[in-house]
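ESCALATION

Customer reports they have been waiting on this structure for their group meeting. Please prioritize. Original submission:
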Amino acid sequence: MIKNIIRTELLKIKRKGFWLLCFLGPFGVILMQIVNYGVRKEYLLKQSDDDWSYYLENVISFTPLAVVLGIAILTSLMASIEDETNAWKQLMALPVSRLNVYLSKFVILFCLFLLSSCLLMFFTLGFGLFLHLGHTVPYFSIFKYSFYPFFAAIPVLALQLWIAVVSKNQGIPITTGIMGTILSYSGDALPDWLIWKWPSLVNAWEKPILNVVLGITFGCVLYLAGMFDFNRRDVK
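Update from on-call: job pushed to the front of the queue and completed.
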């Protein structure tokens, strides 16, 4: 049953720009570095003895912003598909579980961001090799800075999806998403317990993996809370 629902959801988003946004997010992050290194490459290469590490630091400075903003946009678009055609009542009238409907939307969004993380990893590696930053390529660091921010942002994804599917006005989740994006840009200034800080991989213990563990754990909690709340609510 869940496979059929996911297949139906994929058909709904086919011409809605989801795949384009999935590509534009990671491409935009690397495009910033293309411009950055294109304008002042010689200066940047003198800033550190480890050119790869300095390059990855520049990449990660924009990644949390792209992840949180992308989550806000895609979750709102996912919910607006039903809102535009008043399809919630029709969908709920079908012999399908609300829990499966909610799960299908979350799974699709999760997979889209996994794909974006994969693209970011390949774009980061490709441009780094193009810049000839050194023979010792830090493959694990590239993987870490490509995937960790998304895993740490799973609570943001769960929260934004929850707000989007229960809101009659999609301006609410968009506003929440923009505020979250601004918060994520603040980085070090935020307390460690705030979920919008976690994608930056910054914490008092200087261990990015803690943000990932917290992200996955509290992401599951918020997902379950949103799913059961959606299950008991009246249809829009």
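Sent to customer with the following note: The CA atoms of residues 66 and 118 lie 14 Å apart.
Escalation resolved.
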